[in-house]
């Protein structure tokens, strides 16, 4: 499923980011608990606004893949 790849990409970016989860949450303007539960796989999904804020804080953006 496409959302699985987004979830994996977000978790990988969180893991490799040098900021603490607390700092990342503050930079994204999100509650620490939301980021903590998602990063620790307690929370399996994020809403679009939350994912967008997290992507912005992590410097991620979506791009369209070319079809083969």
What are the defining features of this structure?
single chain, 68 residues, mainly alpha, 434 Repressor (Amino-terminal Domain), 4 helices, 0% strand
Structural topology:
Blueprint: H1 2-16, H2 21-28, H3 32-39, H4 48-58
Helix pairs in contact: 2-3, 2-4
Describe the structure.
The chain has 68 residues and is mainly α. It has a single domain, classed as 434 Repressor (Amino-terminal Domain) (Orthogonal Bundle), CATH 1.10.260. Helices cover 62% and strands 0% of the residues. The protein contains 4 helices and no strands. The chain has helices at 2-16, 21-28, 32-39, 48-58. Helix 2 (21-28) packs across helix 3 (32-39) and helix 2 (21-28) packs across helix 4. The radius of gyration is 12 Å and the shape is globular. 10% of the residues are buried. The model has no long low-confidence stretch (mean pLDDT 92).
